[in-house]
Amino acid sequence: MNLIRLQGILFGLIALLCILGSAFLPALDKQTELIFVASLIVVLGVPHGALDTVFARELYGVSSLMAWLRFSVIYLLMVAAVVALWYAAPMLFLIGFLGISIAHFSGDPDGEVPWLVRIIYGGAIIFIPLIRHTTEISDLFSLLVGASAAQILMPYMAYLAVPWLLSLSAVILYLLWNRSHMSFEFMCLALLAYFASPLISFTVFFCAMHSARHIIRTANYAKHSTPKLLWVATLLPMLGVVILSVVAWALLKDSTIDSRVVQIIFVGLAALTVPHMALVEQVRVKGWISRG
Questions:
Q1: How far lies 213's CA from each of 136, 175, 218, 255, in Å?
Q2: Nearest residue to 268 via CA among 36, 29, 50, 28
Q3: 291 lies in a domain?
Q4: What is the number of structural domains in the chain?
Q5: Rg of the chain on CA atoms, in Å
Q6: Domain contains 143
Q7: List of residues 6+ apart from 200 with CB closer than 8 A
Q8: Is 289 part of any domain?
Q9: Fewer CB near the terminus (10 Å): N or C of the chain?
Q10: What is d(CA 37, CA 3) in angstroms, rounded to the nearest whole number?
């Protein structure tokens, strides 16, 4: 069994445990839940993006000090542009964030998967939770971009929730019929998105599936790098993320704690995803080809 398939099974088992926990354990209060998921995303989710330094080296041959400075400036300018969009046009930011998230998550399924199936998969963690948790998601969006923008967008998203679940269910049945190993991953994703709270389902998916799978693929892509070098490659970017988060926390001092946590996590994820995708998607489209 290869590592990707094993990771998919582990994701499914973690998802099932979270579903059982949601059913039988008392729910966390919202502030505790926010702090808990924020900690998991920073510790287990963000590091996969810190490995962008590997792609900069492999794709563009970035190695000298000046080349790294130039790369860092371009990367940070892209991050700043997304933050500026959130500040100036919250509605446009939210639509863009959801769109790039679907596109980015669509790269997670392994092997030759039709693009439509990938899109259904990528949007599952965003749309399916709306079936049972509309109010909770509306509250999160309100903290992120303001109540007016959230109220405008929510009805349109809600219309897609049930069709998205039915589409994913059809894909699962097809995978089961063909005895595909991916059927377990897809099934657990559907159950997680439907039953767990939106914050928990997103965090489990982001950390246990998306981030973990990306780290495995990056290690395979940069097969000449030792685990020690990969850890070192994440160190400075992660330090930068922590520093920027502290600065953002100070700048948002007039907001509530809940609002600050949501904005730092999700605006931060959106801002980091844009340059991250600019690097990673080039490799994904080519099939994560490892070099000899």
A1: 28, 20, 9, 35
A2: 50
A3: no
A4: 1
A5: 19
A6: yes
A7: 18, 22, 33, 37
A8: no
A9: C
A10: 26
